[in-house]
């Protein structure tokens, strides 16, 4: 499984837990985040959407050909990127992807975090005029997880910075606009064997990304029969970092979905839409 992460997030415990179920995880720090940053001036230099998709393609190519089924997972900003990739990524790469998993994907802002329309318009304009200008996003950790230890860890992790650039912001806003308005459609043949297999998970109390927008996208913008929208009642943004026992239940759901689709093509256990 390969991962596309969000801004300032960590997945070590989640990925370690997946590995105990025989699921190998390959991940990279996107430009401007994590250890890809060697100096403060590089923070948030994600680039335009074309660069983001090219970086994803280069990383996926690094694990191809794969002797085992390959899945692509994305959370939040990374979830929006994976949805975009499933729709518009190169077909010669998508044909190797057995399934797509989206965790709290950034299809739209949550009402609790939605900026003013003028702010969005201004952000797009400034991104074109001053692309490398940095800005602080001011992440509210209270929206991330109900676990106070997770909130504390975010505040103390130097790699979990909240610095973006105007260019990266503008690109993210453009992708979000296309996703939230239905301009992005995922075809029925976006995966291995000419079949799209997609699982979208979202917490109903997510204060950062929009639960209803994710559900609507799953219902109206994903073609094919093997799709599922999994609602987690009362859960926050990081489903993989919620308190126990919710964290382990989410892990079980992810593992079950992947393993059900990891057999020989045409012999998987999945296949029915669950919306």
UniProtKB/TrEMBL annotation:
InterPro entries: AB_hydrolase_fold, Hydrolase_4, MAG_DAG_Lipase
Serine aminopeptidase S33 domain ranges (all copies): 9-244
Superkingdom field: Eukaryota
Organism of origin: Sporormia fimetaria CBS 119925
SUPFAM superfamilies: alpha/beta-Hydrolases (SSF53474)
Protein known as: Alpha/beta-hydrolase
One Pfam match: Hydrolase_4
């Amino acid at each position: 499984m390969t991962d596309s992460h969000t801004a300032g997030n960590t997945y070590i415990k989640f990925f370690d837990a997946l590995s105990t179920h025989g699921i190998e995880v390959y991940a990279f720090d996107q430009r401007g985040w994590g250890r890809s940053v060697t100096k403060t001036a590089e923070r948030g230099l994600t680039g335009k959407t074309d660069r983001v998709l090219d970086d994803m393609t280069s990383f996926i190519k690094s694990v191809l050909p794969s002797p085992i089924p390959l899945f692509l997972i994305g959370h939040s900003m990374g979830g929006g990127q994976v949805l975009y990739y499933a729709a518009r990524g190169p077909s010669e790469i998508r044909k190797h992807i057995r399934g797509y998993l989206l965790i709290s994907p950034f299809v739209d802002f949550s009402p609790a975090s939605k900026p003013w329309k003028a702010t969005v318009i201004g952000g797009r304009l400034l991104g074109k005029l001053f692309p490398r200008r940095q800005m602080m996003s001011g992440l509210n950790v209270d929206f991330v997880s109900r676990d106070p230890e997770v909130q504390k860890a975010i505040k103390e992790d130097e790699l979990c910075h909240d610095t973006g650039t105007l260019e990266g912001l503008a690109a993210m806003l453009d992708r979000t606009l296309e996703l939230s308005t239905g301009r992005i459609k995922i075809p029925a043949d976006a995966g291995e064997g000419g079949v799209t297999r997609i699982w979208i998970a979202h917490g109903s109390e997510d204060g950062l990304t929009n639960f209803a927008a994710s559900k609507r996208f799953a219902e109206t913008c994903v073609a094919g029969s093997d799709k599922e929208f999994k609602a987690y009642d009362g859960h926050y943004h990081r489903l993989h970092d919620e308190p126990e026992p919710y964290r382990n239940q989410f892990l079980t759901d992810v593992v079950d979905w992947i393993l059900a689709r990891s057999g020989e093509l045409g012999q998987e256990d999945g296949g029915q839409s669950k919306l």
